[in-house]
Amino acid sequence: MASLPAPLAAALPRTPRIRALATVLAVATAAIVPFALGADYLFGAVLVPILILSLAGLGLNILTGYAGQLSLGSAAFMAIGAFATYNIHLRVPGFTLLPAIVAGGFVSAGFGVLFGLPSLRVKGFYLIASTLAAQFFVPWALSQYGWFSNGSASGVITAPPLTLGGFDLDNPAGRYAFTLGVVAVLTLLARNLIDSPTGRAWMAVRDMDLAAAALGIPLGRAKLLAFAVSSFLLGIAGALWAFTYLGTVEPAGFDLDRSFQILFVIILGGLGSIRGNFLGAAFVVLLPVALSMIGGAIAGPSLDPALLENAQKVVFGALIIFFLVAEPDGLTRLLDRALPYPLELDRPDETPPAGVAANV
Amino acid sequence: MSRISPKSFLTLSAAATLALMTGCHEKTGTTQQGGVAAVPGKSQYFPLQSYRVGPYAAGGSGFFGGFIDYMQLVNAQGGINGVPLSWAECETEYDVEKGVECYERLKKSADGSPTAATNPLSVGIAYATLDRSTTDKIPLITINHGRTDSTDGSVFPYVFPLQLNPYSEVSAIFNWIGAKAGGLDKLRGKHIVVLYHGSPYGKETSGVIDTLAARYGVTVDKIEVPHPGNEQQSQWLKIRQINPEWVILRGWGVMNPVALKTARKVGFPADHIIGNIWSNSEEDAAPAGDAAKGFISITTHPSGTSFPVLQQIRAQVIDKGKGNLADPKRFGTVYYNLGVVNGILNVEAVRVAQAKFGKRPLTGEEVRWGFENLNIDDARLKALGAVGLVQPLKLSCSDHEGGGAVRFQQWDGTRWNVISDWIQADRPLLRPIIEASARQYAREKGITPRDCSKS
Amino acid sequence: MQFFLEVLVAGALSGVMYALVAIGFVLIYRASGVFNFAQGSMILFAALTFVNLVERGVPFWLAFGATLLLLIAAAFAIERFVLRPLSNGSVITLFLATLGLSYIFEGLSQIAWGAQVHALDLGISDDPVSVAGLSLSSFDIAATAIAGSLVVVLALVTGKTNLGLSLRAVAADPLAALSIGIRLDRVTVIAWSLAGFVALVAGLVWGARSGVQFSLSLIVLKALPVLIIGGFTSIGGVIVAGVLVGAGENLAAIYLGPTIGNGVEGWFAYILALVFLMARPTGLFGQRTWARI
To answer: In a mutagenesis test of the C interface, which of A138, A324, A327, A359 is the best target, namely the one with the most C β-carbons within 10 Å?
Structure first.
């Protein structure tokens, strides 16, 4: 990285202003460019899932990247959010879609605290027992008891048409706008939370929890709060997945593979980084598309779909390893290094030390 | 320390992202095109939500292999009255979400040819795309499975559980068991276990099983096997404790051979296990080895390669190197033949519709009329080269199933041998239940049922 | 009562087979400090390769040997291209690398050998046999014997040989081991090859039990609670834990199932693991770790 001449460095605006500027720029780009390009498929199959996975990644990042608690059950909390939103919207009078989504997030947060209780006693890798228990129990419960899906024989729920305050958003562009709004607001709120003493406490717990306890940080409360906030965001991501992306969900769609997918988002994007979530989500969503386009270009229409599917798996796995080897701090660090001068959008002490989640 | 030159990576990925996003349209994703469209937009298009990987790959690859091979045959013979067939595949892995995504991506063809029908071969995906299909006016074909009350076409104009719906399947099995016992009245007091796959498909028949059990005085235990079903020890220990007369296996994919092996492990005889229409293929029995000998199952069509239509496929498609099966030994197996039967029925529907609307690529609405007016009798079967392969079918506005009869076959270690004549389901008994359920659905969705006497 | 005992014992025997899978994890965890999620896919890869060779007429032991060679080659590749570059990585990084590995193994297995279900015949018949008045599966008993002998062999290798000593040294402190001249890369390859061998045996046993197909790799999800309860570092521990999990799961499915619902066995083992963890946060036999500020 080139070092800047002293006068120029002194003249650069302070980090917070740059960060605010960058955020506004990003949101504006996201809000305007896609509408200019049009293309329903772009909205419905690319941008909306990227946004939702970024939100899910944000949730998991708070728990794993900032608070250092490894979780393999993210999809279970998404499922809780989706089904809770559906049931609240369906059964509780007065709850239109947006309040229902928020309420669903709170339900998910409650369960997050429940499954986070073991973290008070169990440390390290063993903690995956708790989130894995959630990962297997929740989809089972949701499909076993027909009440959750309003008696559907298959456990499948269908989202009602998307309306907000009288506006009909039930088209690809509308769904994108809705999702963008929700994700942008939540990201800003998360950013503020991370900057606050709560976020600092989380990072202390992550880096060395004994030292944090010695300093007087209430470990239990910090960990449970991390679980709660994380599950809140994951729950809303799940609700969006059902209501603005797929329109139809079943419990089996929130399986272990989905949890791994979100884990990939945050690892590839960068642990302890907000913008990393977006980068990671974009990578995860666009990679299969890219691979099949390349596959189609190489082999033409006679390509065996099974072969393509399996080749995708191999390439994905290889790329994961390649990334972990070449840039363990994720795409966000890559972005940092590529820019002409240090933006320092994430403060250096936010990203975990070169042994992430040292307690684990 | 980063080993990638950040700038080059960044420019490369930015360029790639931009290219992807602007190049993205229906063609992307795991979609494979096929068929002949000499003039873009002038073929009859079939979207295929297929699955060739995952625990149910055997069924999917066999079925879609047969379906595609039949379409290749039709194209080789000049298409349907000169209209060629085209198709595009999208991998669903039997996953509902992927199935819905594939539906949305594939429902319109890339070159503007009109869509004839969707054949997702999955109850879960069928449930999830039912409303969309009706709104989009594309027939949803669920051969030998599906949402049972969609048999009543007055409420479900666009859904067709061809040949056999799940209720008929169970009823036919009960009738056969009854015949074996010397009469349905002799079933009173007997004990039967239904071992079903933990999925929408498996749960579809729970209600009617209870009804039939109550009617004939049979005690039925329903035991679920969670997907994918590769561990069934506790289920079979329970079955051994119950010691029923018969076990009805409503399995799918890997659950089937595991069931047979585990049954052997606990000492339950294979010839008292009756597999349903999705536990009846060679790929279900062979991997269980010895444990499968004597296993009985139902089928709407036999396996085998002697049928004239299969001979034609061999001559005009497979020998010319256009066969779709990865393993050519599967030609003529049960799932493959089901795909061929499905192809025959889909194409025949288009043909019937063309007779009314004109010999050109038809819209979904027009093909729907074709399905509803399918009338395949012995003479037509002879012309199609499918006598003995397809049962005579007559559909109508109120009856989207059209058949409802099965034959029983038994596995001898290498092949299936047919051991019974056509056994009919008790359709008069089932009809009121189906109609009640359909009316309920109509009420919930605010649909006014069509008046079938008029169409 | 007899039924209860049969359920208990049958479950315990299955549990030993879960432990068979878990042993591979323990070997790698002790040698590389890595939780190798790819173990399940290695099992699938091993079983598919073996069964396809046998179906093409290759004799049993030749196929066994060939598959083992492939796994050893994989161990070399993994050490060179995944573990060595990531040797400074965190636990999560390494875990994710093995996740990537598992995708690679799965994809390659199915590209090479297809997606069909194969029967695997080990020559052990699966008729029920009567032991002390209980009707048990002869195959399960044989599988338990296989697992038992494997454990004995591994215990001898790690306990009595120089190689075993090197493995334990590397597990205890890799830097110290390096400094006294132990070839870290060689030891790692050996550990992963041993794990490959275990995966092959597990693949054969499970393949014979439920057929060789793609869901075989999902067996790792059953081995995880066994590992968590037994502790990641003790082979004997996972056997005990396996018995606990297998028996518990079976009993829960049969006796709790009617009240709670079908399919309890999907999550019961994990809840059981959680309960055990609350009592012993590092598993029944795992190493207690000390942390310093």
So the answer is: A324
Chain B hits for A45, Cβ within 8 Å: 24, 101, 104-105
Distance from C-alpha of B326 to C-alpha of B68, rounded to nearest angstrom? 13
Decide which of B29 and A346 is more confident.
A346
Residue C262 placed within a domain = no
Q: Is the pLDDT of residue B260 over 90?
A: yes
Give CA torsion, residues C3, C8, C12, C15, to 10 deg. Answer: 100
Is pLDDT of B374 > 60? yes
Q: Is A215 on the interface with C (CB under 8 A)?
A: no
Give domain status of residue A284, yes or no.
no
User: How far is the C-alpha of B324 from the C-alpha of C74, rounded, in Å?
Assistant: 33
Asked if the model's pLDDT at residue B27 lies above 90, the reply is no
Assess if residue A288 is contained within a domain. no
CB spacing of C107 vs A314 below 8 angstroms: yes
The answer to whether the bond into B257 is cis (omega within 30° of 0) is no
Please, are residues C265 and B234 in contact by the beta-carbon 8 Å criterion? yes
Average pLDDT, chain B: 87
Looking at the complex, report in whole angstroms how far the Cα of residue B10 sits from the nearest Cα belonging to chain C. Answer: 23
Residue A147 touches chain C, beta carbons under 8 Å: no
Are the Cβ atoms of B96 and A327 closer than 8 angstroms? no
For C184, C201, C287, the CA distances from C32, given in Å and listed in that order, are 10, 21, 15
Shortest alpha-carbon distance between residue A223 and chain B (Å): 31
Kindly tell me the burial class for residue B142, based on how many C-beta atoms sit within 10 Å of its own C-beta (0-12, 13-18, 19 or more): buried
Cα(A95)–Cα(A87) distance, rounded to whole angstroms?
10
HSE toward the beta carbon, residue C278, CA cutoff 13 A: 10
**With contacts defined as CB-CB under 8 Å, which chain B residues touch C11?**
233-234
Chain-chain contact of C103 with A264 (C-beta, under 8 angstroms): no
Chain B contact present for A31, CB below 8 A: no
How is residue C83 annotated by DSSP?
I
Region of poorest pLDDT, from B119-133, C113-127, C234-248: C113-127
Residue that is written with structure tokens 């809000």 in the block = A31
Q: How far is CA B408 from the centre of its chain?
A: 18
Any domain includes C54: yes
Q: How far is A347 from chain B (nearest CA, A)?
A: 19
Is residue B36 within 8 Å of residue B43, measured between CB atoms?
Answer: yes
A72 is in which domain, residue-wise? 13-254
Report the share of chain A in percent with pLDDT over 70: 82
B302 and chain C in contact, CB less than 8 A: no
pLDDT of residue A62: 94
Q: Taking the domain B28-165+304-403+433-445, which CATH number applies?
A: 3.40.50.2300
- Tokens representing residue A188 in the block: 């800003």
Pick the CATH number of B166-302+408-428 from 3.30.450.40, 3.40.50.300, 3.40.50.2300, 2.40.50.140: 3.40.50.2300
Give strand pairing partners of C128. C137
**Subunit partners of chain A (3 or more CB pairs within 8 A):** B, C
| Closest to B438 in 3D by CA, of B154, B61, B134 | B154
The residues pairing with C129 across neighbouring beta strands, listed in sequence order, are: C136
pLDDT above 60 for B158: yes
A317 occurs within a structural domain: no
Position B7 scores a pLDDT of 59
Spatial contact of A141 and B226, defined as CB atoms under 8 Å apart: no
